[in-house]
Design goal:
The chain contains 3 helices and 4 strands, in the order βαββαβα. It is of the alpha/beta class. The protein has one domain: Rossmann fold (3-Layer(aba) Sandwich).
């Protein structure tokens, strides 16, 4: 199965990705920074971009049978966010199917 996982570099994303790879699934990990990926495998592909980059999001989900979001707020509450970046990101993820 082809899975696209958003939030792969977070705690939950790492667990979901590890389980999918162990299961033999093909995983496309969508991350902001490549250094957030701690593993490598023949069936792991990385797409870098932020949650507002619609073309990169579409590239990441193009061949997906399943799209999984493990996005969540940062545990470091000292970071200041404007707006609703996760909700806006989810809207961008589902945009290709909304039409």
């Amino acid at each position: 199965m082809n899975l696209t996982i958003f939030g792969d570099s977070g705690a939950i994303g790492k667990i979901v990705t590890a389980l999918a790879l162990k299961n033999g699934d093909t995983v496309t990990a969508y991350v902001r920074r490549a250094e957030g990926i701690e593993k490598s495998a023949d069936n792991l592909f990385v797409v870098m971009g932020d949650l507002s980059n619609q073309s990169q999001i579409e590239k990441a989900i193009a061949k997906a049978d399943v799209v999984i979001s493990t996005l969540g707020p940062a545990l470091d509450m000292s970071r200041k966010f404007k707006g609703n970046p996760i909700a806006d990101g989810h809207a961008n993820i589902i945009q290709p199917w909304a039409n």
